[in-house]
Design a protein that fits this description.
heterodimer; A: 389 residues; mainly alpha; Formate dehydrogenase/DMSO reductase fold; B: 248 residues; alpha+beta; 2 domains; three-stranded mixed sheet; 9 helices; elongated
């Protein structure tokens, strides 16, 4: 009997290297504590694992609640084909955020404490509860994919019966904790650079989460189309691109008004790192927004994908600015993540991609639901490229 | 009656006796090398900081409305009626939000421990509960660190400012900062020159997040009605379309 070794490709080598370094970083984290595995300090207690793994991770998983709201609550059925991948992304995203927190928290063995030891005045307490409940909701939203795979009709009916209140709950919980990740930083007015510190941080975090949720939907559709050799749902994605353009316009307009009302534009004249990071973040949001208003961009798969990627990068830049770089000057210190912090973060991302791929291959994630009889006509009409592109 | 500490920088001679007494109170090692390091850490909960000719002390301000206690997700930090902000290490999950939130950057962490705790001065809660002075105040040879009732210390500080206006910068640090603290500073020079933050809001920090958190029940209830209502309307529309669709 011969053992079939997996074919060696560049991506697999990179994947293995990332996981190996992640495993060694995990060893350092367990046996040498946060001091041995991070560059955190008393003056800079939160680093990459909060700034990226949690703040970006939760945001990048926002496609789940955005599309559930669009498809099931606003009843825009044309978006159905991208709903399941979005829910899967969200579910994996939240599991990885939880896994990332096990690294970051000093006493991971006590992760359950917020569930029994309450402090309703704490934003972190609210986030802990919302993330726990919403991960449960995502699990329930993901279950039908498993039931369908194994032909379990009875449990499918049970899930279906509770689905509407469950989905409403999911959207509410997401609204709460997406915005609360911004509220976390309301308590540091003297530390967070004024280009980012604003009383409306929770609102900005919520709106930008919707934007990045849509962008991630385009991103993952594009990648899964390539990975699984599917046809790209271009008219559908073009229409999401249109929603994305409007969402980002609203977001940018709120940010403009915020800076205006706080008289913060003068800060842009200072030649500081913060100024350039801010401009980078804004440019990465303005450019795709402007491009997405043109139908020829929306209907060009590569251009559409590129715009989505820019929105994702703008989002990541924003969360890192709020969570890390914008706090450096106010904290009176510099922080550059240790290699082991980067290794753990990359491992989490790599594991996310890998699990997504495996589930995408073996579960009915990409087949659209069998359309309910009467709806088909409406659907063909909606999918008309002229109507949506 | 709540207790407090008054630190008068003009009386401090930088002998660091407070550091040694504090280390002893916590059972931490103390030697010349530790004394030379003028930063607070999990191994040194108070320190004297030299600013040219002047000295300043760093210790937990034990705020009247502490940001650390408000942000702690498990309520491991509590403001006591006596004044000190105390910490229950058995509850702490190590999220370090208290460290991020503290406007004075006081809480420190046992970074190299496998089972780490947050560490900070608790204004000698056990000693003060037993009617004793804080270890730092008890040992201070010049009275620069003075421990007593908060009201009386404010009166005392005002008296000192009034008696020798030429020796003091005419303000009491800690009276209005973040809604008031349990540690007051008097100085010969403006406070930022002895390393104290002067860009702090006058209102209690917990208000900054509470203003948003208190909206939570409203958001949830309004959101449920709104989303439920939208679902009801759009679903009805789809039902109608399903029934009428084929006839068109």
């Amino acid at each position: 009997m011969t053992v079939r070794l997996p074919k060696i490709t560049v991506w697999r080598v990179i994947f293995a290297a990332i996981l190996l370094s992640g495993a060694y970083a995990t060893y350092l984290r367990i046996f040498y504590g946060l001091g041995g595995s991070t560059n955190l300090s008393d003056k800079f207690p939160w680093g990459l694992w909060i700034g990226f793994d949690v703040m970006c991770g939760v945001g990048l998983a926002a496609g789940g609640f955005t599309l559930v709201a669009m498809v099931h609550i606003f009843n825009i059925k044309q978006y159905r084909p991208v709903l399941r991948p979005a829910v899967l992304t969200a579910f994996l995203g939240y599991l990885l955020v939880t896994l990332g927190l096990l690294y970051d928290v000093g006493r991971p063995d006590r992760m359950w404490h917020p569930l029994v030891m309450w402090n309703p005045h704490s934003v972190m307490f609210e986030v802990a509860w919302c993330v726990t409940l919403y991960t449960t909701v995502l699990f329930l939203e993901f279950l039908p994919i498993v039931f369908e795979r194994f032909g379990l009709h009875k449990p499918m009916e049970w899930i279906h019966r509770i689905s509407v209140p469950m989905m409403i709950l999911g959207v509410l919980l997401s609204t709460l904790h997406q915005s609360s990740l911004g509220s976390l930083f309301l308590i540091v007015p003297e530390k967070l650079y004024p280009l980012w510190y604003t009383p409306i941080l929770p609102l900005l975090f919520f709106v930008s989460a919707i934007g990045v949720g849509l962008a991630m939907t385009i991103f993952e559709s594009w990648h899964s189309a390539r990975a699984f050799g599917r046809a790209l749902e271009l008219p559908l994605l073009a229409s999401i691109g249109r929603v994305l353009a409007v969402t980002m316009s609203v977001y940018l307009w709120i940010r403009f008004l915020d800076l205006l009302h706080r008289d913060a534009f003068g800060l842009l004249l200072r030649n500081r790192t913060e100024t350039w990071l801010f401009l980078l973040e804004i440019a990465l949001a303005v450019v795709p927004t402007a491009l997405l208003y043109q139908s020829r961009i929306r209907r060009n798969p590569a251009a559409l994908y590129f715009c989505a990627v820019m929105v994702v990068f703008s989002f990541i830049a924003n969360r890192l600015n709020v969570g890390i770089t914008g706090l450096e000057a106010g904290s009176g210190t510099h922080y550059i993540p240790k290699w082991s912090e980067v290794a753990v973060t990359l491992s989490l991302v790599a594991v996310g991609f890998a699990i997504f791929r495996v589930i995408g291959q073996h579960f009915p994630v990409f087949e659209a639901h069998s359309p309910q009889s009467g709806l088909s006509e409406v659907e063909t009409k909606e999918a008309d490229p002229l109507a949506v592109g | 009656m709540p207790k407090a500490i008054l630190y008068d920088s003009t009386l401090c001679i930088g002998c660091r006796a407070c550091e040694g007494a504090c280390a002893e109170r916590w059972g931490l090692p103390y030697n010349d090398k530790i004394a030379a390091d003028e930063t607070i850490s999990a191994h040194k909960l108070t320190t004297i900081v030299t600013h040219g000719d002047h000295f300043c002390r760093r210790l937990c301000m034990n705020c009247l409305q502490p940001a650390c206690a408000s942000v702690c997700p498990v309520g491991a930090l509590q403001k006591t009626a006596l004044g000190p902000v105390v910490y229950d290490a058995a509850k702490c999950i190590g999220c370090r939000y208290c460290m991020q939130a503290c406007p004075f950057q006081v809480p420190t962490y046992e970074w190299s421990s496998r089972l780490p705790r947050m560490r900070k001065c608790d204004m000698c809660y056990p000693r003060q509960s037993a009617g004793k002075l804080t270890a730092c105040a008890e040992i201070c040879p010049t009275g620069a660190t003075f421990n007593g009732e908060r009201d009386q210390l404010i009166a005392e500080a005002r008296q000192r400012l009034a008696a020798k206006p030429d020796q003091y910068y005419p303000k009491i640090y800690g009276l209005s900062e973040v809604g008031g603290t349990s540690v007051f500073f008097l100085s010969a020079v403006p406070f930022e020159q002895i390393g104290l933050r002067t860009n702090l809001p006058g209102e209690p920090m917990p208000m900054l997040t509470w203003r948003v958190l208190e909206l939570l029940p409203d958001v949830v209830s309004t959101g449920s009605v709104l989303l439920g209502g939208i679902w009801w309307i759009t679903n009805r529309r789809a039902e109608v379309a399903r029934k009428e669709g084929p006839r068109k």
